[in-house]
Amino acid sequence: MRAEERLWAFVAASAALLWAVPFAWMAVASLRPGVPPDIASLTPTGPFGLGNFAEAWASGNFPLWYLNTVLMCGGILAVQLVTVSMAGYAFARLRFPGRDLLFSAFLLQLLLIPPLLIVPNLATLVSLHLYDRLLGLMAPYFASAFGVFLMRQTFRAIPRDFEEAAMLDGASIPVPIRHVLLPLARPGLVAFAIVSVTAHWNEFLWPLMAVSSPRNHVLTVGLASFASGAEAGSAWGVVAAGTFFVTAPLLVFFLIFQRRFVSSFVYSGIK
Amino acid sequence: MVLLGPSLIFLGAFTYWLVLRVFYESFLVGRFAGESAFGFRNYLRLFADPHFARAASNNLVYAAGTIAPSLVLALALALALRETNRFNALLRTLVVMPLLIPLVAAAALFSFILLPGEGLLDFYLRKLGVGMVNWLGNPDTALGAVIAITVWKNTGYYMLFFLAGLAGVPQDLIDAARIDGAGAWRRVRSVVLPLLGPTFGFVVPITLLNALTQVDHVVTMTQGGPSDATNLLLYYIYQQAAQNYDTGLASAATVISAAALLGLTVISFRLIERGIHYES
């Protein structure tokens, strides 16, 4: 390796390690109960214990927040999978007047996302009597321009012969979609599911505004109120433990299925 | 049409209808005895509001301060870590991890890192003999601190796109340039960047969208302060809607922000397209 390249590799490695500092602190601080005077230290010195996790679990309503977050992400995804595979199929396979214009109109939603349109979104929820309900939180996401685009690309990559064979056997359109195309389109659906769940698991501003009563709070909104309380008491180890509860599920899935996640995110940019 | 129905119903109710509604509300200046009055007063009030002017100029700084450094860092890291071996894979994982956590979780971690005195940054800076700085409490540094958190969060995401883009750049081409005596900077500028044109074409719109919508840490850490130093457009909209119940002002600010986003996205598309033609 040439000297210049070795220098680059060193700089990149230092940058990557610097990037990991917040995670390293979260791990070390959450495992050291009480209020150690060197709470900022990244050096893992004991005594260790799970006291911070117990305290975080007791002072926040994590089971409820997990449940609401899972219901929200699952509900959004379930409806999206239906809407995006139907519309994706239509744009990939059917010819109808105004198709390209309609497709561009769909893509407008890539920019006009719910957090940006918070004011009219909220007013619409109120008039539909969906304000402060999990369903209201989910509704603006039931159609997904990104998902439609992704499924269009996925269906286009599948040879027509498969469904034509099914149709010759006398099946109408919905049947080949469900039994022939959907199984073949699984990689696209999985990629979409990963991006969708990650986005909604981590979203904050919209769930903060669309919901008011604590029983409808999701993890991010819960964490914000929980952390401001714990920070006021300088219980930083407890803050670290609570942050771990919120971030751990996705981080664990990411570390296990890293290749899947990475290819899904790369897909997500190619709009 | 049956296939498009479900998507169209939801898009209609939660995108197109909202656009019309926010336009309507932005021109609605009063309701008296069942009669509605329309006019430009919301926009006049908006442009006269010093908080809005501050939020708009802060947002420009925020956009420039987050987009340029995170793209440069992302490209540099992608170039340095493009070769796949176990060590590079580990480093890439470390850089991508912030993408997986909520911005409010990042805010919780950085609240401690930036804490004056006891915090992690001051703890290590003290060892280097640097005095304590109240990063979030000082109007001169607060926006910079917010920007740093966003850069930390997004760089890994953009790096993934550059890694994917670089996979399409043949190594032979870079080696050929090196044999011709091109230095590292020259190789990046004349060989790699032109070939990454399409990658920039979709990354830049994403960065613009993020610069307008990623304000979660402002909500939880600074509430726009101190003295408006970290007020951003979407936070301003949130304040007007959720705290002041001023729908007219919030709607006018939404229209202006969304129009700016659409405009900048179109302009960036054009510039990048021209760049690609010019370079090749």
What attributes does this structure have?
heterodimer; A: mainly alpha; MetI-like fold; 2 domains; globular; B: mainly alpha; 3% strand
Radius of gyration of chain B: 23 Å
Q: How are the strands of the largest sheet of chain B arranged?
A: 1-2
Helicity range of chain A: over 70%
Radius of gyration of chain A: 23 Å
End-to-end C-alpha gap of chain B: 42 Å
Rough shape of chain A? globular
Helix tally of chain B equals 13
Number of helices of chain A: 15
Instruction: Let me know the CATH homologous superfamily of the largest domain in chain A.
Output: MetI-like
The CATH architecture of the largest domain in chain A can be given as Orthogonal Bundle
Helix-and-strand structural type of chain A: mainly alpha
H and E string of chain B: HEEHHHHHHHHHHHH
> What CATH architecture label of chain B applies?
Orthogonal Bundle
Looking at CATH, the homologous superfamily of chain B is MetI-like
Q: Any overview of this molecule?
A:
The complex is a heterodimer of chains A (271) and B (280). Chain A has 2 domains: 3-49, no CATH class; 58-269, MetI-like (MetI-like fold). The longest helix of chain A has 32 residues, at 62-93. With 271 residues, chain A is mainly α. The mean pLDDT of chain A is 85. Chain A starts with a helix and ends with a helix. Chain A is built from 15 helices and no strands. In chain A, helix 4 (62-93) runs antiparallel to helix 11 and helix 11 packs across helix 15. Chain A has helices at residues 3-19, 21-30, 51-59, 62-93, 99-107, 118-127, 134-138, 145-156, 161-168, 174-184, 186-201, 205-210, 219-232, 236-256, 258-269. Helices cover 71% and strands 0% of the residues of chain A. Chain B has 280 residues and is mostly helical. Chain B has a single domain (50-279), classed as MetI-like (MetI-like fold, Orthogonal Bundle), CATH 1.10.3720.10. Chain B is 74% helix and 3% strand. In chain B, strands 1-2 form a two-stranded antiparallel sheet. The longest helix of chain B is centred in the last third of the chain and has 33 residues, at 247-279. The mean pLDDT of chain B is 86. The interface between A and B is large, with 91 and 91 residues.
